[in-house]
Amino acid sequence: MKDTYLGVHVSPLTYEGIVTEIKARMTRGDKSTIIAVNPEKVMAAQKNPEVKELINNSTFQIADGVGILLASKLKKGTIKSRVTGVDMMARLLKFAAEDHHPIYLYGAKKEVIERAAENIKRDNPGIVIAGTTDGYEQDENVLIERVNDSGAKIIFVALGSPKQELWIRRNINKLTNVLVFQGVGGSFDVFSGTVKRAPAFFRKTGTEWLYRLISNPKRFKRQLNLPRFLLKLLFNRRN
Ligand code: UDP
Question: Which CATH number applies to 3-192?
Answer without folding.
Answer: 3.40.50
